[in-house]
Amino acid sequence: ELYTLRNRDRISQTYERKIQNLKFSSEKEFNSYVNENYKLGDEFYDKKDYRNAITHYENVINAYVCFHSGVINTDKSKNKEFQTYYYSIYNVACCYSLLKNYDEDYATRTYLYFALNSGYPHIEYLLNDKDLEFTFNHFLTLKEYITKDFLYKKN
């Protein structure tokens, strides 16, 4: 089964990835899996091993999708329980940008929009994040689109 993340920044490419069908017997098991993978993602991120960081952050994303049956609350005012979810999505975007690979940079844009649509609230931070510098230099209009699509709507 493929889950398609469509970017919404007026660029026609899409990024597709497989969703692992994860089953959790309890919320405790789910939380343990999420916390362990998020921690490992951060550790790999700190070591600049971005490919392995992506794997673990995507494990978190998959866990949320499976545990919540694909129903993720994207209402920003009620999103505290999903912070790890949207931070994982944002971190995947940063990892793809830090890989500095033009062929994969479309994934950065897609994950940025996915994070913002999922409730990531720090738009001003995102627009100035050094981890995204490669992508913003590669796609000069991306900041403008994000500002128009999310920052203006927020205010």
Describe this structure in words.
- The structure is a single chain.
- The chain is mainly α and about 160 residues long.
- The chain contains seven helices and two strands, in the order ββααααααα.
- It has helices at about 25-45, 50-65, 85-100, 105-115, 125-130, 135-140, 140-155; strands at about 1-5, 15-20.
- It has a two-stranded antiparallel ribbon with strand order 1-2.
- Helix 2 packs antiparallel against helix 3 (about 85-100).
- The longest helix has 20 residues, at about 25-45.
- It starts with a strand and ends with a helix.
- Residues about 1-15 have low confidence and may be disordered.
Task: Tally the helices.
Answer: 7
C-alpha-based Rg, rounded = 15 Å
Q: Please outline the major beta sheet.
A: 2 strands, antiparallel
Q: Approximately how much beta-strand content do the residues carry?
A: 5-15%
Mean pLDDT across every amino acid position: 82
The strand order across the widest sheet is: 1-2
Q: Helix fraction?
A: 55-70%
Structural class: mainly alpha
Give the uncertain stretches in residue-range form. 1-16
Shape: globular
Q: Name the helix and strand elements from N-terminus to C-terminus, one letter apiece.
A: EEHHHHHHH
What distance separates the N and C termini?
A: 38 Å
Short summary of the structure?
The protein is mostly helical and 155 residues long. The protein has helices at residues 27-46, 50-67, 83-98, 105-117, 123-128, 133-138, 142-154, and strands at 2-6, 14-18.
